[in-house]
Each structure stands twice: as structure tokens, then as C-alpha cells.
Amino acid sequence: MEPSTGIFLRPSGGFISTTAPGSFPIFFVTDFFPAMSTDHTLIASISGIRGIVGQGLDPSVLVRYAGAFGTWCRRRAADRHRAPRVVVGRDARPSGPACAQVVIGTLRGMGCDVVDLGLATTPTVEMAVLREEAAGGIVLSASHNPKEWNALKLLNENGEFLTPAQGETVIERADAGAAAPVRSGAVGGYREYNALADHLDAILALDLIHPEQIAAQNLTVVVDGINSVGGEALPRLLHCLGVAEENVHCLHCEPTGHFAHPAEPRPDHLTELTEAVPAHEADLGLAVDPDADRLALVDEQGRFVLEELTQVLAADFLWRHREGPFVTNLSSSRAIDDVAAAHDQPVYRSAVGEINVVERMKDVDAVLGGEGNGGVILPDLHYGRDALVGTALLLQHLAETERSLGALHDDLPHYAMAKESLPLPEAAPERLLTALAERYPKADCSTRDGLKINFASSWVHMRPSNTEPILRVYTEAPTEAEARDLAARFGEELREVGEALAV
Length: 503
Description:
Number of strands: 25
Distance between the termini: 22 Å
Helix content: 25-40%
CATH architecture of the largest domain: 3-Layer(aba) Sandwich
Number of helices: 15
Largest sheet: 11 strands, mixed
């Protein structure tokens, strides 16, 4: 296993950098003074710059990173003879308006013209970057993290997350304090714009989507909007797709930012939705995370459809219409491989992280991609995870097959997964995983992103998170008991190896 991590400490605080192959550094920024809490954490990765507001993410941090990013955007725009325009949108978490003011002011101070979308889904911002021919974009959202967190999710001129090289450049600029403010006469402009209608129009214009066919099914849908931007976007999309207004039932759709339940769309967080779907005699339930790039499903019986299967259902639909490769990450279920085999289509895998999937999709000219967290990426629309287009593909699938979501789900290959999170060990994660790999010299191991060990009927994937200061342990096996046992086994092995390294 190749070394992939270094550790750097500074007198003014600490920077712990862990870099996975194919990604740019992940920085955990912590004050290293005995009287200070280690809760002061800032994570910079391929998924953005995120931390707890007031405990790592504060106005000075926002200025530092927004300044570095704005300078980078302005110079890239000049090189490409484009306007130094940056699109900004945010989810509904309470810190959003204040953070947006700081970020927007900083960008303007770097000479960037800001297009402020206000409340907007991440995919809406991504598409607006393209439509505005902007030099980049910023989404203020910590995605599935709790409401106390916020983040700067940085986009390049393609409306995509920064590549590893681009991200490293921006982080180095921020670290060096290399922002370049402009003189007063060159301060950037500002305008507001609601981009959701354009996003919905683009979905409706897809040749795969036929609202009249969906309308003919007279579907009833329950939406859990987690009190954020999806609570407004999803009902509007459903109406555009032909679902009658009276047939859309909303849970937690007011964008207050005070999440009614933990934000990650997992079965234990969506019990209200699983109860509401049969109570309303609905055909399905939809749940999103706070920035609406992830989609989870509940069938007509109130059964949670494993979030891993969102991309599988989308692929099953698309392959009925066209051929072409599919790309997903190393932590995604083998179910996609089984469905691909039934359609005689190839599947490719990348490291975890949207930009890693996107870059691989471009390499193989994929017709669809995604991640097992409910993310669906349709290049016909844009290269980004998009719960709205995932919803449209699913409803079109139901309309064309004239089958229930439960029936489609039951026809899919079924595996069980366990997803565990462990505190980051005292040993650097790459040392820990290298030592663990040495226990399995004859196993089918991948070190492309952490450590993945493939067994005959199961696998385990262990890697540092891109979004939280934790080590993720994902397993898949034929049954829930086997998946849980496998996760427990490797959790214990990680503990044993960590203790041995600490001696």
C-alpha cells in the first residue's frame, strides 16, 4: 500500500493533512493548546471546506478561503477572456445568510461579480455556473452534516467540484494568505437571481422525460424536505412532471434550516416518511439531504429502499433506452454490477467523492454515474449529483413500466450493507490501513481510496471521510447479520492494529 498521508503541525494551531490517492489534502485544523477544545475542527477536502460554525468555521476562515478562491477565479477568468463571475447559493441552515454575506463581500473585494441565487440546491448552483458562463461557484452547505456545520463547496467553471489539482492550488493560496484584493474602483458587482425555474425547465427538456406519461399514472407522493431547499424544489418539480398538487404531501418542507431529524437520508432517520407513505396511500416517498444532491426512496408499503439502489434504479431505466458505461465509487453496492450484467453494459469504479466519479465518467464516456449515497449524475443535464433529475428518471421509470416502486425494488439484486463511523485513530489513517492490509497478503485488496478488501460474497471498505473527522467502515454481504458482523470484525481489527502502532 503506497503512503498517502503526511502530518503537519504549526505553532498557531494544527494542520493534520491526510491525502488519499486521487484526492487533494484533507486538513483537520485544530488548536493545540491544553485549554482549548479539540472540537475546533476544519476539514478541507474534495467535498469542500467545512466545519462547525464558531468552532473551526468562523468569519476569518470564510474570508481566507473565499478570498483565495475569488483570486483564483478572477485570474482563471482573465486567462480565458471571461468575466470574473462567481455564482453563490446556499441551503437553509441558520448560519447560511450570515456566512453568505461574508463570502459574497469577500468575492466582490477580489474583483468578482457575484450572482446570488439565495436558497438553492447544490445541483441548481452547478447548472447556474454553466448558464452564467461563470468562472466558478460556491455552495454554502455542509450537506448531510448537522445544522451546526456549514461549508464552502467550491465549483470550477464547469459547475463541477474542483479537481484534486485545482483544490490543492486554492488550499495552498488560502494557507499562504495569497488573496489579492482589488482597488475600490474594481470591486465586483452583485445581482440576485432565482435559478430553480431554469433547472426544472432543463429537466423537462430531456428527451427521456415525458410529463404527460407520468401524469397519466395519477401518482401520489410524500416528500421529506428536511427543512431545507429540497422542500421547495421537489414539490415544484413534481407538479411540473404531472403530479397533481393535491397528490403531493409534504413533511418538513419549510426551509427553516432546523432539521426535523438527522440530515443524512438513512432508514433510522426517515421513520416519519415510512409511516406517512402508507398513511396517505401514496405510491412512493422521496427524501433528500439539506442541499438536495442525494435522493432516498420509500415504496408504497412504507419500506425504505436502500439508498444504494437509487442509482441502480436510475441505471436500470436508462439502459432500457441507450447503451453506455456507468461509473460509481468503490463503496457502492455490487447490485449495480448485477444490473449492468443483465443489460450487458460495463461498470467502472472510482475513489469516493463526486469529482472522482465525474472525472472517471468523462474518461470512459459514461451515460450515467452516481454514488451509493443516493447520488445520480446524468451528463445529459450536468456533471453533478442531482436529486431532482434522479426523481424525474424514477417517475418516468414507474410510468413506462406501469409497475410500483415496490415491484421494481423486489426485482433488483439484494445485498445488505453496514455503514459504520469510527473516531480518527491516533495513528495516521494511512499507517493504520497499511498495517491492516499486511494481515491479508493474499486477499483481493484495493488501495486506490483507503483500503477495500474483496471477499467471495462480501467486501469491506475503510477510508477517512471527506466530510467529517471520522474513519468510515462500509461492508456489504448477502445478509444484514453478515454485513454487521463484518463491520464489527474490521472495527475490532482496526482497534487492534491501532493499539499495536501506538506501542
